[in-house]
User: Fold this.
Amino acid sequence: MSTIPIIIDCDPGQDDAVMLLLALASPKELKICGISTVAGNVPLELTQRNARIICELAGRSDVSVYAGCKRPLVRPPITAENVHGHTGIDGFNVFEPTAPLEELHGVDFIIDTLMASADGEITLVLTGPHTNVAVAMVKEPGIIPKIAKIVLMGGAFREKGNTQPSAEFNILADPHSAHIVFGSGCHIVAIGLDVTNKTVATPERMRTIERIPGKIGQAVHDMLTFYDRKNPEKYGSFGSPLHDPCTVAYLLKPELFASKLVNVEIEIQSELTMGETVVDFWGVTGRRPNVHWAHQIDHDQFYSLLLNRIARLPG
Ligand code: RIB
Ligand code: CA
Assistant:
């Protein structure tokens, strides 16, 4: 397997943080060109700081972090402090990272990096709202042939929404940007709640995480302890789904997933179903298939991969 060059665009968030640790722990497979951050779970000034914290925690302050868009393209911002806490990574004792934030805007980092690359060379990993990538596509459409594929966490089909009955957070937070990305013609792998809701950090899995030696295991355990929904009556167990690490796991072991090439459109008209991913799983509309929609995951092997990799990080 040759090294895959990637740009990560995220909104840390505890699950984004674990995704970053998985990516940082996989240098043989992934070359991280940089991390752009976006307003999402918490405001941009926190998501960019949190990304730098996680890079420093992993001993990878060499990875550049950029701040992108502060708000969605059209809609008023929504956040998720009720899930992630006011720092965005509650459970972890946050600190001011030593590595500075890059001065270049995250959108311009995405454009400059892609335009300097060969066609089909760089893969984008999106685990927050799609604002940065959508703005980059509008500002410089020439980036589109440069993108090998987009692997994103977002949407829901068989599962219902987690923020509105028909909408998942990343899509609902900026549905117009998602509309641009899903309509871009890029090779898109969408990993939605249908898959990620199967990756709950159950008490048994948390006990395994607790046994990972050193500060990284402790940090992951502490973050996921806070992130736990703590409502087994409603969800069937303690724990919360590790949504965002599924994107990096897909790049590392795509065989853990099953997907189907289908048409997916984003609802941007109806207030009632705003941000819905309308997945034509059975091809009844005749609309152009534009997304590889993930619908299965080997969640035990996912956790085995995740925890083995995180245990490799220093400290
Ligand atoms: O709906 C889950 C997604 O929204 C995850 O990316 C989580 O971090 C939040 O951004
Ligand atoms: Ca996220």
Remarks:
- The beta strands are 4-10, 30-37, 65-67, 122-126, 147-153, 188-191, 257-266, 277-280, 291-297.
- Residues 4-310 form a domain with the Inosine-uridine Nucleoside N-ribohydrolase; Chain A fold (CATH 3.90.245.10).
- Residues 10-11, 13, 15-16, 40-41, 127-128, 244 surround calcium ion (ligand 2) (CB under 6 Å).
